[in-house]
Design a protein that fits this description.
The complex is a heterodimer. Chain A has 17 helices and 21 strands. Chain A is α+β, with helices and mostly antiparallel strands. Among the domains of chain A are: about 220 residues, no CATH class; about 80 residues, no CATH class; about 110 residues, no CATH class. The chains are: A alpha+beta, B alpha+beta. Chain B: InterPro entries: Mediator_Med20.
Chain lengths: ~650, ~210
Amino acid sequence: MANSVNISIEAPIENQIQEITYDGQEIYQAPLSMSENLARLAQKIDFAKSDDEFCNIKKEGESSSEVKSEEDKEPGYQSSLWPWDSVRNKLRNALTEVCVLADVLSIAKEKRYMVLDPIQPDSIESRPMVQVYGRKKALSAAGAVLLNGVERLRASETMRMTRNMPDFHIDLLRLRQNWRLKKVSNTIVGDLSYRTAGSKYSQTGVFEVTKAPEEQIAQAMSMNAAGPTPSALRVTVPPELQGVAFISVVCQKEQEEVVTATLSSSALNCPGTLPGDGAELHWQQKLEAAQNVLFCKELFARMAAEAVQLDASIPHMVVGNQIMATVLPGIQLLIGLCHNNGQNNNNSEAVKTKVVTSVSRCAPSPQPEERANKNEHDHVLEHSLHQLLRAVHHAHTHHPFPHPATGPLGPSKRRSLAGPMAADRYELLDMSKEQSLLEQIIQQAQHFFMRRRSEYVLDTIAKEVKDPLIVSHWNALNSPTQSCVKINIMAYGYDAVCRTSLVVHVGEKTLKCICRDGKVRHLSYELQELRDLIYCQIYQHQMTAVQAVGRCMGWQLLASSSHLGSGPVEPLGNASSCLLASPNGDRMIAIRCEPSVGIQVFIAQSPRKDFFVSELVQDKKWENLGGAFKEVKLEKMEGKNFLNKMELLMACLSSPS
Amino acid sequence: MGVTVLQQYPVPENKTGTYVIELLTKRILALGATQQGQFLVDCESYLSLPQMGTTKTVHILHNSEQPASVFSILESGTKNIHVIADGLFDLLMMKLSQHYTSKKQTKIESKGPRFELGDFCVKLGSVTMNQSFKGVLVEVEYRPCVMANAVWGLLREFLQGLLGPSVPVQPPQHLLSRMNEIYTPIDTIYQYLEHFSAYRKLTGLRSA
């Protein structure tokens, strides 16, 4: 053909796939070595055909021998290059030998020149006694093995039956019910990691199960006959998972410890009850402790990685077994991993001192106090750390089902609905955001502080201000990062007349106050802002309450202003005032309220008593205008509180003089 | 997602589209807006084959503001039916190629810079069909409000200030009937479709 096309054919480079594992990984076969390849090819030769071809080869061999002899004249050059040279030589030698053998056989067959005679083989010396002894010895060895086994079986059976010893297999069954076990050749190994629960932590949690020596069981039984029977199992956990571990969360404020939360399982809460010798521990407790160690390690490793990755304005620090993060200005969150792997005999002491040293570096306070602090640690942060990692594990194993069954697996329900609901880019961006564990725990700690601070502010104000009463109701239901408090301001005995209520939402770093008039104010983490707001609300309440009381008493409100322009400038808010007139109009009460000074009350009456005719004002009628205001000394007045005093004052002024 | 008004800006005689875009960019930047990337709205139309009876048109639109969604509007005589779906809808249309054929030469898109100015979001799009420039569309969105009636005055004033007195600002045809309803992203898409259909009918530049 004129336009022929070159086609090159080559074997695929990749090796044959031997196996595809369940996670999709392909295991390739190793490429064949030269000898293996030859062996594989040799297997394909059909030796049944060799009879005919043998002759051909012989003929060819004869014809090619001449060629070969010519080639042999150039020794070394080609033979050294050709890798099959030695093979060819060996084959040729073998062929020669086979040819000679064939010749000899054919000559012997004719029986003219050669005769084949049978040869007597050398008689082997047979010594029957040696054989007998040998067999006897072998049999007795085998018998001993069997007898030994029977003895052990019988011993364990009788021990179990008569002396009420624990049964290994029953124990193994119990272990199997709670833990993952498998048999690897001669040993039983188990896995205590959280891998099946969704953990992706690389450290393995392999433990080995063996049978406890009988002497130990007997000894343990004799030690405490009354207690529960010791287990026939012995569980060996790797050294890095031995002992006790917990995560301590310390919040410190300006070199002073504020709160400590300790993460540990309930058994580890009082490490003093854990005996130091691991062998005496029941396997269940031992495995639980090891699992807890693994959990704490995973939690800490995760948070340490996040602390390094996150770029906060004040960078988080990871030093050794401790993570430092700034929660609020001046307040730090210390998360430490405390792990005691059982080398020390006194477990609990070692752990305690470790924590104390980590704390006392910053807070040089006496140790007994520290310990008292430890005992009354807050369970909330401990619990939420647990919860956060478990939620991560849960999310790893529980994917939302795709709604059309053919849809992609993985995106959340919100994300899969984003297309049909026409979510815009901000919402989509929002969905892709994921909060790390550290961020979440920092937020929770921030909220914890904000809550405590607001509590403190409200309590101190309630203590400072007796009139009116400040009552705060904290919502019992709240989330780890949000809570809500309702504040009621009212006077004793006048709560039906006037009460001011406001709601404060406590967030992570901010407060949101919703006042009675519907105004929403966002406050920062500074305490003073909330304090100022509450004080403003208190004085506002007094003004509105006095007006309400006046209304009840039949007094008339002449004027009121909540933002008075006159007077000295107030440090917070504005002065407010109101003017009330008595029912028949002859008395007036003026109230001025300045947050920094307090409440001042003035009264005036008309006709004024101190009216004197002067040159300018001569007519008598002007005395009805009302005189100068005179201040009332409130503290000298009777009455339980301000409103009570005002009621008395109004009652007094209403009566005809 | 707030109320969006799409307004076409006439390109003056012997001026290019880039000139107009630059002019408007200068104006909006002078108002204090900041540029926040680019945007793209494209539209492709599919015609049903005659075997299916009366010919129907399906418009497939994408808006970069809703990146996960595909908007489709079926024109069947008097009534328009819209479906909002996720990105897989494009693949579905490919499967339907036996029944709906794409009119490739009418693929039309509007792209350009996107600005944010306080609560407003302004997009200056130059409309191209088959790489040929067709005109300029200005999209203004007021994000805090979802009722067209409540915000139309504000939007008109903003548009007048931005586009100048020479451009008459009228409420979009699509919005007229829906002034008192909650605005949804598909309303923006309808406005784009209106303008795109108008551009397709014209051969040259659209002046007014």
